[in-house]
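U., I forgot to send this yesterday:
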Amino acid sequence: MAAKLTKPQTILKLIKRSKGASLGALEKATGWQPHSVRAALTGLRKDGHVIDRTMDAKGVTVYRVTKAAQ
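Result:
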């Protein structure tokens, strides 16, 4: 049986995908409010991950890891 991911690990898994993840998708996956998801993204940045924030065709902000922490 696979170990359950922590919420920050879940966020990292989603934003490592080639298409990234929207704030709404990250909220849904973690059950957290927007400010908590953004705080987790800040924590991942402090850990050394480079996270890109772009807009998709519908104007939704998408987060994506462009360089993983070493």
